[in-house]
Amino acid sequence: MNLTPRQTQILKALVEEYIATAEPIASEQLEKKYNLGVSPATIRNEMAALTHQGFLRQPHTSAGRIPTPTALHFFVDHLMQEKRLSVADEVSAKEKVWDSRFDFDKFMRQATLALAERTKTLSVTATDEGDIYYAGIANILDMPEFFDIDVTKTVLSLLDQQSRLTQLFFDRTYSQDPVHIIFGADLGWPFFDPVGMAFTYFSAGGNHRGSLAVIGPCRLNFPYVIPTLKYFSQLFSEMHKHWQ
């Protein structure tokens, strides 16, 4: 993907603005808010080129553009700077789950809830034995992508489909990256296009594995969500010695 430095700069700004607003982004908006050093007309031309290359698309009812899954993957892989969790955040997360560390079921419920609260998403924890825990349904109902009842119904029905979740997390082959990103368009499931998911793995005691996921719109707050998932995975794996 041979983007020029200027196209890369514009794409980064557009994705960041889209994550923040959930609205199609216009060239004037980027010119005003980001120090891109070029005119709205130049930005508009570059956005047209990025659209032609498959990084942006134009919703029917808007003059603005939104990033495609290709752009979002590119942003996560090459442009994003992770926001490190503060020591206070790490301590707070650990305190939330510490008292339940000897009770696997209680720990899973508490930790899943803590993850949902921190990421403001729907969080799902699963084990390869078929245990499913989730929290944060109310979080996604505030997001414009989930005002579409078909999208919301599809996501919520997934929570009751143990075999589908097990297949998604444990039967597919993923890269060696510590956190995996999937967009609805990658899966090809009906009504799943606006949905984004980030997940990682942890040791669940013995030879068992667990998966820790957050589900929300495609514009998940990746710079915060990814390091949060990494920390929670480390926390889960630390605790697994209590579940042997």
Describe the model:
The chain is an alpha+beta fold and about 240 residues long. It has two domains: about 5-80, Winged helix-like DNA-binding domain superfamily/Winged helix DNA-binding domain (Arc Repressor Mutant, subunit A, Orthogonal Bundle); about 85-244, GAF domain (Beta-Lactamase, 2-Layer Sandwich), CATH 3.30.450. Helices cover about 50% and strands about 15% of the residues. It has eleven helices and seven strands. It has helices spanning about 5-20, 25-35, 40-50, 70-80, 85-100, 105-120, 135-140, 150-160, 160-170, 185, 220-240; strands at about 55, 65, 120-125, 130-135, 180-185, 195-205, 210-215. The strands form two sheets. Strands 4-3-7-6-5 form a five-stranded antiparallel β-sheet, sandwiched between helices. Strand 1 (about 55) and strand 2 form a beta hairpin. Helix 5 packs antiparallel against helix 6 (about 105-120). The longest helix is centred in the C-terminal third of the chain and has 18 residues, at about 220-240. The mean pLDDT is about 90. Belongs to the HrcA family. Negative regulator of class I heat shock genes (grpE-dnaK-dnaJ and groELS operons). Prevents heat-shock induction of these operons. Keywords: Repressor, Stress response, Transcription, Transcription regulation. InterPro entries: GAF-like_dom_sf, HrcA, HrcA_C, WH-like_DNA-bd_sf, WH_DNA-bd_sf, WHTH_HrcA_DNA-bd. GO terms for molecular function: DNA binding.
